[in-house]
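@channel sequence for tomorrow's demo:
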Amino acid sequence: MSEESKAIALVTGGNRGIGLAIAQSLKADGHHVVVTYRSGSAPTGFSAVQMDVTSSESVDAAFAEIESQWGLPEIIVANAGITKDGLVMRMSDEDFESVINANLTGAFRVARRATKGLLKLKRGRLIFIGSVVGGVGAAGQVNYSASKSGLLGMARSFARELGSRGITANVIAPGFVETDMTAALDEKRRSEIAASVPLGRFCSADEIAKVVSFVASPASGYITGALIPVDGGLGMGH
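structure tokens (generated this afternoon):
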């Protein structure tokens, strides 16, 4: 990635929460940011396309639109994902498979399609948004934890397969982040969660976004196959 010409950056699920913070941070770095969204509306100030990561056809169509309008995306942030939490004894096949399909297979569909352009560019960044629970597990999140754990093996395989072409692949693993979802928790539960984190607080979406910006930058050119925790120490050693 050259310093002079800023890249096209693609952020899946970039219309709210952590994805939007990542999009804003990459835009502040001077990149041309394209966000994808499945439902709702596109955020103002960004190029945007609709994409359903559970459909290869939708992913292909979105990439074709991006490439024809703006060019080849060089920074790929696979952020789109879902949760369907529940105790394992009550977790249906559909609850398990739909989360794997969106979070893990969805990230694969996006990275696989992006690789076509990255191989032409002979450079690029694949950045997967994982989770601390991919390493430490979480009661009620067998499906989500499995999907996020799987990202690491996938990213490391991409790193080995594509490294000789100047393409890196890394996983960023957030801990508990201030989002609409965590804001809805009652104060007692929020305090319990914060107390379990060595730094004693939740993470801001902006703190995740700044690490993505670093991994997307020339400064991280020799980092690949890494799991980068941004979790306040919650998952240390994992």
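heads up for whoever presents: The chain has a mean pLDDT of 94.
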